[in-house]
Amino acid sequence: MRHEDGSKIASPEQMQEWMKQTMDWIGGIAAQNKFVGGTGLLFADAKVVHHNKMVTDGPFGEIKETIGGFITVRAESAEEAAEFAKGCPVLQGEGNTMEVRRIHKNEGGH
Amino acid sequence: MKQQELIPHLFRTEYRKIVSVLCKRFGFEQIETAEDIAADTFLAASQTWPYNGVPQNPVAWLYFVAKNKAKNHLQRHLVFESKVSDELKRSFDETFETEIDLSPQNINDSQLQMMFAICQPAIPPEAQIGLSLRILCGFGIEEIADAFLSNKETINKRLFRAKEKLREENVKIEFPGPTDIDERLATVLTTLYLLFNEGYYSSSQDNVILKDLCYEAIRLCTMLVENTLTGKPEVNALLALMYFQASRLDARIDQNGELVLYDDQDTNLWNPELISKGAYFLNCATTGNTLSKYHIQAAIAYWGTQKANTHEKWESILQLYNQLLQTEYSPVAALNRTYALSKTAGKETAIIEAEKLKLTNNHFYYALLGDLYAGIDNDIARQHFQNALALSRTQTDKQAIQKKIDNL
Predict the structure, then answer these.
(1) Per-residue pLDDT of chain B (408 residues; tens, 9 = 90+)
(2) CB-based contact B325 A31, cutoff 8 Å
(3) Among B25, B122, B137, B172, which is most buried by a count of CB atoms within 10 Å?
């Protein structure tokens, strides 16, 4: 889940609504026995470690997009995974995107 | 209690105690002997009580007779096996009282230890349930066969194989050590959960036996809750779940023995006493940091006991199923989640989600689709109900589905 601007502050009501939508989205994938795991990433306490090992607060500033979280699904194909991604409420935010990536495994699973 | 009811009643409550204590004393290799002695004891009671009258303390009488029979057996065994010295035989009589200990404490411990011995991954779940019913609940082979929709021969074979396996594995009747108690307890809880479900959802026409299965599961789970070693949060949560579900036992079967679905139940028949017991144990379950699948299911079952069809009720149920499915997928949870979704987001949304489940060998799947399409497109609904009818195996389920078709 990529947010174009992670610094936007949402109201508690909005947060609660997104929370519910996210839970319903994940629940729908889990109901198909295709949910493996997921992790939301918080913006609080975020740090950026630069190539010269300098540490700055937050992923904001010069970085345009931030990663809001990721979930792992058991999909037949990248296309099926993309179908799952379409349901993610993050996409309601203009400029936000979902990226589908295959997990590297030796035995060729997804 | 009349005499003809007294012996079956005592058999139900005392047989399992005698078997557990004797089996613990003899070891698993002689479990049949333990069962024979317990059965012989009741045979003796049924032969003498009608003529001599019921003893003043029938339970003490049974224990006394069982002890003597066990003692005779051990003596014969001792002489036959090891040709022991006279001295040993003399001391045997003296130590005997302490060796066969039918004190409440030892009875309780033996039963709990037996529970751990039987609920072993080494034997298949249905054999664990069968053995539990036989040894921990004192069920007859015929009753077990009824509950499993099977016959005596099959059940006898299944139990025989399971006992053989336990002997081969050299299973000890003892409490697990502190390092593996959680893992072993998980297996015990699974078996009790299945035992309860066997009573709650099974298909046998004998409703009395089915209710008994539920109450036996509750009794065994209560024993675990009351023991300091095993009374963990998830055990309390499972007990809460069982009480919440059991509160509807009288409402879900009508006078003709037909299943009454949740929406059609007379809520006056829901048992408030069992519901409050469930709430009590759910509260006890919240003492630790663990959130087990039984916690989530108990919370869902709690909402199930709330009569008012509020948005809050169905939204809570939906979120709990979302959570449960992430912890552990099951087709039933997936179907129930989709049903809850239909209550919060409407049938159209739920149909889209339901059709993704593709549980095409599950009659509940088609029953759910039928329910969702009913009122939207009755022809499609009928088609789904027909599929459900074709896939369902039990009379109870077929009747319930047929009723839905008739109501379209």
Answers:
(1) 666 788 888 988 899 999 999 998 888 888 889 999 999 999 999 999 988 889 999 999 999 999 999 988 888 776 655 655 555 555 555 555 447 888 888 999 999 999 999 998 889 988 998 999 899 988 888 888 887 778 899 999 999 999 999 999 988 899 998 888 888 999 999 999 988 988 887 766 667 777 888 999 999 999 999 999 999 999 999 999 999 999 999 998 888 777 788 888 999 999 999 999 999 999 999 988 888 999 999 999 999 999 998 999 999 999 999 999 999 999 999 999 999 999 999 999 999 999 999 999 999 999 999 999 999 999 999 999 999 999 988 787 888 899 999 998
(2) yes
(3) B137
Q: Does residue B112 belong to any structural domain of this protein?
A: no
Which residue in A20, A24, A33 is closest to B329 by CB distance?
A33
Using the Cβ of B329 and the Cβ atoms of chain A, whether some distance falls under 8 Å is answered with yes
Instruction: List the one residue out of A22, A43, A96, A89 whose CA is nearest residue A65.
Output: A96
Residue B227 contacts A where some CB pair is shorter than 8 Å: no
Domain boundary residue among B253, B282, B307?
B307
Q: Please state the pTM of the whole predicted model.
A: 0.85
Q: Please indicate, yes or no, if residue B80 is contained in any of the structural domains.
A: yes
Substitution target from B325, B343, B360 for chain A, most A beta carbons within 10 A: B325
Which of A27, A32, A33 has the CB atom closest to B322's CB atom?
A27
- Asked if residue B176 belongs to a domain, the reply is no
- Give the range of the structural domain holding residue B254, as residue numbers without chain letter: 232-307
Identify the structural domains of chain A with CATH numbers, from first to last: 2-92 (3.30.70.1060)
Beta carbons of B325 and A27 less than 8 Å apart: yes
Q: Which chain A residue lies closest to B332 (C-alpha atoms)?
A: A31
**Does this complex have an ipTM over 0.85?**
no
SS (H, E, C) chain A: CEECCCCCCCCHHHHHHHHHHHHHHHHHHHCCCCEEEEEECCCCCCEEECCCCCEEECCCCCCCCEECEEEEECCCCHHHHHHHHHCCHHHHCCCCECCCCCCCCCCCCC
- Which chain A residue is nearest to residue B351, measuring alpha carbons? A28
Token representation of residue B351: 């149909």
Residues in A closer than 8 angstroms to B343, CB to CB, are none
